[in-house]
Design brief:
The protein is built from 30 helices and 28 strands. It has 853 residues and is an alpha/beta fold. The protein folds into 4 domains: 77 residues, no CATH class; 333 residues, Rossmann fold (3-Layer(aba) Sandwich), CATH 3.40.50; 261 residues, Rossmann fold (3-Layer(aba) Sandwich); 108 residues, Sandwich (Immunoglobulin-like). Helix 12 packs antiparallel against helix 30.
């Protein structure tokens, strides 16, 4: 039975406790240990059963308990400290304000992501991408950026994992109660929910908007589960990454197009749009449509205007991870959009294709984002290289090292992931400013000053808590599965609070190779069963509901954990989430990471472990390539790439066993009279000092600001001012260049001297070039020179600009340049032409290039 009317019931707080509401509804509490302690102090058991949800806690706590707290001087003093801290945080001067002052009063950065992992009580995330998005928002708040987040609000979120008695993963989809979460519905001037509408085939779909306060910044989430929609459309924001291809395109239309319309409805006018992965790339089409409508621009003019202010971050190292939609599906959902853009189907589809002539090629969201963004980046240095290789077909004649995809390595928000014990230790020995300045190298150098005994005792307490947590969770799992009482009792005996504890926790995608350590069970059993040097493993993670091989990995670990040799030293904990993650990264001794190399774009869990003094052991992939040295942890292999996956597993598993037997275990159990592993602690300190100041989102967001956000905003302003004069001129210039590019030809190229030159000699190049309707100011003519490999290719060549020195009446221009060779060997050069214009953000932005042959 549906209700006649609905009301929102809010907690009835005594006047002295009113500040609790503001604290609860601002997620700043998620990185404030004293605020978390405040809520835990109110009712410890209720805090746990509500999944650490302060809004639900305030709604469910007994009224008499609230009245008692209102008269508790100790609690009120605690409340005042937390409330004052929040007010100070919200109003103090920030890095952005100090750095940029009032020079950019109108800038606003909109950050679009399909998922946001901010806290476990808001399950709007599935894994690393969402947690990275959440940490990005938190650091944007810390730094004071004019920032807003945009996403979808999923009624069922991501699934809750359970394991049956055989160890096979099942999925539960509990409904989220948005009215009991730290978010607030947005209302219009009439006091009604603020609604936006988006066109879908034959109908309109409506969404209401929820606001989440994240420190100084706001995040807005779109929710289609409202009565104005039909049942199918209400389910658009039902599951994160659920449903089929059609569900996915419906979600991404709402995220991209709906997100732009939501910002407009809220009165927010961003000047920079950041697409975190390609899920939101349709926003570019909506922005082009709006620019055409609002400013009477052509499609090409609007495209150049909006492209200048777009940032695209790709997190995917393999093409299979990209959303691609069949042409028929795109036609179904966008045929009515073509007229608004004043382009036809072929032109539209070309925006999402690497080969615009292939009418059968699916429409790629990543390619759409790439083609309509000024700044494109991968999420680690290695991933930037992988991305340039992966997308080189978009720039078919451009040397791979010059493809305009760069990298900004991911980080973590340290305050959200560090244990309270370790944070207190940092306050005492590093400086209380470490939290505000997590990227300050001078602060982290003081890690060496932390007394070894104190660091070790702090870490041991965290390991003890991890073991206690794992035992309780295992007991709960067994009880739910209907295990025998004797089996349940044994849960209290698994794991040893003093043993070397290795954690592996992440998505159970097969490329992450969770079962690599089990490649040789007999050898592993000998390692784990050593009487004097015990070792134990804790595993956790979810496989995608449709990933049967990933589920089989989980099942295999469960079965092996039941074998007598492994029963007490291997545990798999179900339903991995952010709360469990904190126990693991704060209490393990070693963080294990075993992806197939070049398959992990970055990875961030190891960074979270490092801030807690946990040492990383990882394949040289993602972020670990940038920081690894023998003083901070261990590498599995030497960065080799393999074609035979089975052979790779054999080699790298043996390498891992050798590391354990010869390096890791002996070092951990090498103890002095005080039973403190001083050499191990030395690596912990090195890890903190070298990893923490670099791999954090404070550094990462500052890098995005300096390299992308500020230049994008300035370029957008330049193109926008004076009635979009420069955007119009730039678009016209591009059309002219593209139209005439095929007419350009090399007439003659010559160099001085013979076939042999001595080291250091100067080689002069003279090139006569027919430019047709173009002029020398439209192009850069360059000498591309370097060593020639056995395949007769110049790799990683050096570029020297040539200068126009002569013209004639036949549109033939003479360009001259030179280069010199500093080393002997087979050397070569060629000449190339690329477009040149002041408003080009990157020399290869157009993809046009002509090589001499």
């Amino acid at each position: 039975m549906e209700p006649l009317r609905t009301f929102t019931i809010i907690p009835s707080l005594p006047s002295k406790l009113q500040p609790l509401k503001k604290i609860a509804y601002n997620l700043h509490w998620t990185w404030n240990h004293e605020a978390i302690d405040l809520f835990r102090r109110m009712d410890h058991d209720l805090w746990e059963t509500t999944d650490h949800n302060p809004v639900k806690l305030l709604g469910q706590i007994r009224q008499e308990r609230l009245e008692t707290l209102a008269e508790d001087d100790g609690f009120l003093a605690h409340l005042k400290r937390v409330s004052d801290h929040l007010e100070t945080y919200l109003n103090e001067s920030t890095w952005y304000e100090k750095t940029y002052g009032n020079e950019n009063q109108n800038i606003k950065i909109a950050y679009f992501s399909a998922e946001f992992g901010l806290t476990e009580c808001m399950p709007n995330y599935s894994g690393g991408l969402g947690v990275l998005s959440g940490d990005h928002l938190k650091s944007a708040s810390d730094l004071g950026l004019p920032f807003v987040g945009i996403g979808l609000l999923y009624q069922e979120g991501y699934f809750r994992q359970y394991l049956n008695a055989d160890g096979w993963q099942g999925e539960m989809y509990p409904k989220n109660d948005f009215y009991n979460m730290p978010m607030q519905l947005q209302y219009d001037e009439q006091g009604l929910p603020l609604i936006i509408e988006v066109d879908y085939p034959g109908r309109k779909v409506y969404a209401q908007i929820w606001k989440v306060a994240v420190g100084r910044v706001n995040m807005f989430l779109l929710d289609t589960n409202i009565p104005r929609n039909n049942k199918v459309d209400r389910n658009i924001t039902d599951e994160l990454y659920g449903g089929d291809n059609e569900t996915r395109i419906q979600q991404e239309i709402m995220l991209g197009i709906g997100g732009v319309r939501a910002l407009k409805a809220l009165g927010i006018t961003p000047t920079v749009f950041h697409m975190n992965e390609g899920h939101s790339a349709f926003l570019a089409l909506e922005r082009i449509r709006c620019a055409m409508e609002d400013h009477k621009l052509s499609f090409d003019e609007a495209k150049e205007l909006i492209k200048a202010s777009h940032v695209f971050t790709t997190h995917t190292p393999v093409p299979a991870g990209i959303d691609r939609f069949p042409p028929q599906l795109m036609e179904k959902y966008f045929s009515d959009f073509f007229p608004a853009l004043n382009i036809d189907n072929i032109e539209f589809m070309a925006l999402g294709r690497s080969n615009k002539s292939d009418i059968s090629e699916p429409f790629s969201m990543a390619i759409l984002a790439i083609k309509l963004s000024a700044h494109i980046n991968g999420v680690s240095t290695l991933h930037g290289q992988v991305s340039r290789e992966m997308w080189r077909q978009i720039w078919p004649q451009v040397p791979v090292e010059e493809i305009p995809i760069t990298s900004i390595t991911n980080g973590i928000h340290p305050s959200s992931w560090i244990s309270k014990d370790m944070a207190n230790l940092y306050d005492r020995y590093l400086s209380p400013t470490w939290m505000k300045k997590p990227a300050d190298l001078t602060i982290w150098k003081r890690a060496d000053q932390i007394p070894a005994e104190e660091l070790w005792r702090t870490h041991e307490r965290r390991r003890e808590r991890l073991v206690a947590f794992a035992r309780q969770r295992l007991r709960n799992q067994l009880e739910r599965q209907g295990a025998l009482p004797s089996e349940i009792e044994k849960a209290d005996e698994v794991l040893n609070p003093e043993a070397l504890t290795i954690s592996f926790a992440r998505r159970f995608a097969t490329y992450k190779r969770a079962t690599l350590i089990f490649h040789d069970p007999e050898r592993l059993a000998k390692i784990l069963s050593h009487k004097d040097f015990p070792v134990q493993f804790i595993f956790a993670g979810k496989a995608h509901p449709k990933d049967s091989p990933g589920k089989e990995f989980i099942r295999k670990i469960i079965h092996l954990a039941r074998v007598e040799e492994f029963r007490q030293s291997i545990v798999f904990l179900e339903d991995y989430d952010m709360a469990m993650s904190r126990y693991l990264i704060q209490g393990a001794d070693v963080w294990l990471n075993t992806p197939r190399r070049l398959n992990e774009a970055s990875g961030t869990s190891g960074m979270k472990a490092a801030v807690n003094g946990v040492i990383n052991v990882s394949v040289l992939d993602g972020w670990w390539v940038e920081t690894y040295n023998p003083n901070v942890g261990w590498a599995i292999g030497c960065g080799e790439n393999y074609e035979d996956a089975n052979y790779q597993d054999e080699v790298e598993s043996q390498f891992l066993y050798n590391l354990l037997e010869k390096e890791i275990i002996p070092l951990f159990y090498e103890r002095g009279k005080s039973n403190v592993p001083r050499n191990w602690i030395e690596i912990m300190k090195n890890s903190m000092a070298q990893i923490c100041p670099v791999f954090n989102t404070n550094r990462m967001v500052r890098e995005y600001t300096e390299r992308f956000y500020q230049p994008a905003e300035q370029k957008f302003r330049t193109l926008f001012e004076n009635d979009q004069k420069q955007a119009k001129e730039f678009a016209a210039w591009k059309i002219q260049v593209i139209k005439n590019w095929s007419k350009i030809r090399f007439v003659k190229i010559a160099e001085n001297g013979s076939r042999q030159h001595v080291v250091g000699s100067k080689i002069d190049i003279n090139a006569k070039i027919f430019l047709g309707s173009l002029i020398p100011d439209d192009v850069n003519v360059e000498v591309y020179h370097g060593y020639v490999d056995p395949d007769n290719k110049i790799h990683h060549g050096t570029i020297e600009n040539m200068t126009c020195t002569e013209t004639n009446e036949d549109q033939v221009y003479t360009f001259t340049g030179s280069f010199s060779c500093q080393f002997s060997g087979l050397y070569g050069y060629t000449v190339r032409i690329i477009p040149k214009k002041e408003n080009l953000i990157h020399p290869h932005e157009t993809g046009l290039i002509l090589w001499a042959n």
